[in-house]
Structures are given as C-alpha cells and as structure tokens.
Design a protein that fits this description.
Strand order of the largest sheet: 4-5-10-7-9-8
Shape: globular
Largest sheet: 6 strands, mixed, barrel
Strand content: 15-25%
Distance between the termini: 40 Å
Structural class: alpha+beta
Length: 830
Amino acid sequence: MTALRLMIRSLARTPLFTLTAVVSLALGIGANTAIFSLLDHVVLRALPVYRPEELVFLYHPGPSQGSISSDESGGPSFSYPMFRELQERQTAFAALAGGRMSPASLAYKGTALAGQAHLVSGNYFDVLGVGAAVGRVFTSDDDRTIGGHPVVVLSHGYWTSRFAADPSVLNETMIVNGHPMTIVGVTRKGFVSEMPGSVPDVFVPISMKAQMTPDFDGFKNRKDYWVSLFARLKPGQTLQQSETAINVTYREQHDQDVALLSHPSPDFLQRFKAKHVVLRPGAYGRGSLRDDGRRPLTLLMAMTVLVLLIACANVANLQLARATSRTREVAVRLAMGASRGQLVRQLLAESCLVAVAGGLLGLAVAHWTLRGILAALPDAGSGLLSANLDAGMLLFALALSIATGLLFGLYPAVRASKAQLTAALRDQSGQTTATRETGRLRKVLVTMQAAMALLLLISAGLFGRTLVNLSRIDLGIRTDHLMTFTLTPKLNGYDDARAVQFFRDVTARLSALPGVTLVSAARIPAIAGSSSSGNITVEGFTPQRDGDDDSHVNAVGPGYFRTLGIPLIRGREIAESDTAASPKVVVVNEAFVRHFLPGRDPIGVRMAPGGGNSVKLDMTIVGVVKDAKYSDMREPPPSLYYTAYQQLRRQSEMSFYVRTALEPDALAAAIRREMAALDPNMPIRELKTMKDQIDENTANERLLSMLTGGFAALATLLAAVGLYGVLAYNVARRTREIGIRMALGASAGHVRGLVVRDVFLMLGIGGLVGLSAAAAVGKLVESVLYGMRPWDPFVYTGATAVLGLIALAAAYVPARRATTVDPMTALRYE
C-alpha cells in the first residue's frame, strides 16, 4: 500500500501528464474493448450449448425440382419425408434434428403481436443439450403426431420482455397463428437458437407446421424442401467418417427423388443424381451472420488496434519527456543505493497504474460505444448483442491495460534508469536536455503515428464515399412521403377469400384518411431483401441454356406503380377490375422485355409460370414499367413481372404502401387505429417510412463509415497532439541554439523553417508508409466498397491533405514560439 501511495503521489505531481495519458489510453482501450465484444459475439463465440464442437449441419447442394425455401442462404433445405427417413434410419450420428424459422402472430390475453417462431423436431433441445429455465423443453413425445401437439416453449428473452419473467405463465394458453397452444416451458438464459442472429420468440413442434404456415404443410411432398438439419457426432467419430456414413443412408432415399423428376434434361439428371450430403462444422451455428460479419469486424478491430498504438506512442512520448524532468530524482536514488532493476520496476508499475486507470475509464467508453453501435443497427442487432460487458470483456480490458502499460512504459523506464548523478546535477540548472537517441525515438514514434493516422483517414474516406455512392443510387421509386407495413391475415385464421376482402378493406380505410393520396400493396416488399422467382414460359421465347427461362415475380395491388412512383412506359397498370373473375394480366419491367422480348412489342404477349408442354399460356402482358430496384439496392434490377394479387388462388402476407401529403411519421398512429378497427387481433409488422427501409439497407455501410470516421478523427487528433509535443519539446531543447541564430541575424522565417522542416520530414516518411500500407490492404476492403476502387485517388489525396493541414496547425504554436525567443534570454538559458 505504501508503494501504491507513492506512485499515486508521484503521478499527482504531474496532473497534466496523468490526465492526458489516462484519457488517451481510455479512448484506445475502450474502442478496442467495444469492437472486440462485437467480434466475440458474432465471430469468435461458439454456440452456448453442450459440446458445440460435436455439432454438424447437413446440406445437399445441387439442382432441385419443386418448391425450395430456406431460412438461410446457402441451403438448400431437405424435404420433410427425407428428414424423417434419415432421422429414423441413420447410424452416422448420435442424433439428428431439424428446424425452420417462421413468422408468427402471438396473442396472449387479448393482445396480439407479430413475432418469430422456430419449428423444431421433438429432439431439438436434447441434441443441443439445452435445458429449461422454467418448466420443460420439448421431448420426442411432443412431436409424434402431425397436428397433435399444441404446445410452445418460450425463449428466455421473450419471456422476460413480454411476461416480465413471470413463472405463472406455465400451463397458460397463448394463441399462435389463431390456434390455442399451451406454454410448457422457457429456454435457459443465454440460449437463442442454433442460428445466431435469428432470435425466435417461441419454439413450436415441427409437427404443427400446418397450423403455423397455412396452405403449406409440406409433410408429404418430397419436392417441398424446407427443413434445415443438424446432428451431433458420435464420440470419437470424425466429420469425414460421419459424412461417408450418412451418404449411404441418403443414397437410398435420394433414389426415390430421382424417380419423381419431371422431364429432366440429360445434364440436369446427371447433376441431380450426383447430389450428396455435405457436413459443415456446427460449433458456431448456421446462417450467414458469422461470414458476413467476419471481414468488417476484423477491419474495425485492426483500426482500433492502430488507434491504441497511436495512443501508446503518445503516452510513450509523454513518458520520455517526464523521464527527462525526473533525471535528477532518478540519479539521486541511484546514488543512495537503489538498483536499476528496482527503478525500472517502479517506473513500470507507474505506467501500469496509468494504463489500468485508462482501462477502467475505457470500460465506460466501451459501454457507450456499444450503445451507439446498437442504436445504429436495425432491430438492435437482432437481440444477439448487448451493451453490457461480460466477465470475458472485463478480463480483456484488464489484460489490454497491463499490456499497454508495459508497451509504452518499458523503454522510458529503462532510459530513465541510466541517469548519472554528476551529469544530472550539472544538467538540472534550468535547461531541458535529452540525448539524441531519445529525440530520434520520439520522432520515430510521431512518424509512426502519422502513418497509422493516414491509413485510418484513407479507410474512412473509402467507406464514406461508399455510403455517398449508395445514397446516390437511382432506386426507380420515390421514397419521400411513403409509409409501409406488412399484414399476415392467414396467420390469424383467414381463408383466401377473407384475406382478399381484408386487403381491400385495408386499402379503402387507409385511402379515406386525411392527407393520404395513394394506397397499394405488394406481396414482395420493395428493397427489403425478399424475393421470389421461378421458371416461366413466354410466347415466342426459346431458352438457350439452364436458367434462361427464370424470372422474378411480384403480386401487386391496383395503383402500385403510381403509389411507389415507378413510371409506366406502355400500356396500363394493374387495375381494380383485375380480379379472380377476369382474364389474368401481367405488367413487366424493361429488364424482362430486354431478356424475353428483344425487338418485339410486349403488349398482348401471352405467358405463364412453369415450363413444359402442359403449361397453359393464360396470362397476358398489358403494360411495361421502368426498371426499379427489387430486393437489394446494390443489385441491378432483375427481369421481373408483376401479377394482380386479387387473381392469385392462394393469398399470403401483404406489404402496404401509403403515400401521403403529410409527414409520413404522423400517419403511424392513424394506421394503427384503422387496423385495430378492422381486426384488433391483427398484428402490424414493420411499420416504418420507406426512407427508414432504405436506411436499413445501408445500415452496415453507415455504421462502418461512422466508426472508421470516428477512429480516423481520434487517431489524427492523437497524432497531432504527439506532433505538437515533439515540436514543443524540440523548441524548448534548442532554445539556446535558436537564440544564437537570431543574435547572428537569422530571420523569423528561417527559424520557423527549422521547426517546419521537422514536420515535413516526419510527415513525408509517415505519409509514404501510410500510403503504401493503404495500397497493400486495399484488396481486403474491396468487397465492402461500392461504386469505387480501393485505390481511389480522390480519397488518397484528400486524406493526405487533411493530415498535412492538421499537422501544420499542430506545428503553428511551437513555430511561433521559436520566433519569439529573446536572444539575451536564450544565451542565459543554460
């Protein structure tokens, strides 16, 4: 304790040094802790289940006929009959389970909310090794009879947020998609699902799929692919051994699928027969979250490390200056019998104390940084992330603090312990001195800071320009004064006829609201990541290769193109009169005409979904509209045809669009009121402005631009502070020399040149290093850029100019001070 009090007292004697060092390190450590927390959650952390390294996920890539749907990219899924046969007959694994995410309408005691359900096999929780926090989880007995197990397990997060963690909800009834189901348990805290980033509210037995997805139970058809499979390896069994074994069982089942193929081409048949099961390690779960997040988070982590290194260089510079002022103190201690080792340990302990203080303050910086990041993410990171730091992050911050303390403190401590008493007593008569070696090291540190700051400035410029380029994309629609939301009446027990009438009633009610000018709807929401496609037959078009007859499709309501601001080029729009009782009509976009009808008049051409000789061409093209973005704003508009949703036999969810002369946000309450009047148990999904929808498309780019810009600004500020410190120190050290030069007739411009020359030297070398580093890492960032190359000359020039201007600003005060030195005072300085 005595040693600690002495260190605190020593640091208190130099409050400016201590405060500057602690704040600099807090910013660097806090930024690193925040980004490492994200990296840990998204990339590094395994599933919180029993022995996650034993899990594997099953895929069977290749061509398929029929309906293919999946809750993750990179499938495809398996059919339900295939799943059950593999589950029953396989001997490759300890156990095999299946699941599928699905939207749900969740009502409890008269209040209905939109939610997410996870359809899982009865052994789902057993295979994962996940138990219940309250009640129980499913067993195989909950999944034996199709439609016979109306039970649900709540996720821990949903139980906490909606039911306030009330254990009395057990055995209560909640309405799921219009069907009463009994709550039997709550999953343990910390478990989300086997698919990080997808957070279900409830778990439902997969045998209840018919109740969860009306019009599509998918239980019998081997051409309906929708189940995702995972398994647990047997003890001692390798992934390769299990893959070989499961393909023996799969081959027996796959032969049945081959026999069901309809008129396959020889090439298709060959590729279909060659399909086999591929196993992928499952320790980190399935889905694209980890792959999508790895590169940007690794880049951000590298940037924060650079910021911390710049902060450490600054503190090391401060330590060197402080060590110079303590030369006499150190020399006296050495003369009184203290060993160099004791002095080095004491000085290192002081450095570590400063670093730990910076680390403690850095925890607050990390917390607020995470809060800001989560606020910028859609849906607050989908429930996966938290601004609270767990024990692992606290240990990371502590280890980082001690490491930085040793990093910036070791050389100054060793340097200070070499002080000689005679020289120290002679030198401490008023001047500031330092060895050339120390001066060179300080310049090297500043040069390194300049290089890293320039690298960060270039990165920020690249991501900033990417965001600008995305904001300038011609979407093909008008996003101003436009609200959107989604309704799923089929999940509330509506049949197809009632759903169509409900959609009409919604349109009529919203159209009557004050300030509303246009209302329409679409099955596939615009630029929201959803899509639907399939092969089609177009009159007079002959496909030249596989996939040549594929097109995207959307089902829309009357006035859809006027509502979204998509210009009509020829013909007419979908109209109110286009109902199930009238001839089927289609409106196509320009890309469709270019692909299927080049050089032809599209109006009046007949077409139909599907292929083969049995297809009846019962749809007629009545209009052509300009291309507009479909699913992703980064992708060019695909070939697309629009049908009338009123002419569809089966209805599904519908996204509504409301154009208003008022501010769209002011319309939200009125929309909720009208929907409650139509059906109080109908939950509204995704109520937002169209501008918010577009912002969600660029959320990752905005976050990356914001963070890199912040880190670059912080790095540049720290580099400027370091440059100022070195120049000010050099001016003080060369006071006598400057005085002599001025006494001999040197001009103020010549003296300022001495200072600025050091600036240009350090910036020149640092700039070359920074530019070279930026060019070297350009390939790493190219995949996250849009509309530009990673070696954009505008960004490189601008970043260099910004760093140069800030460096010159930092040099202004020391340069000015050098020209105000009085020669007589300077001659008496030593």
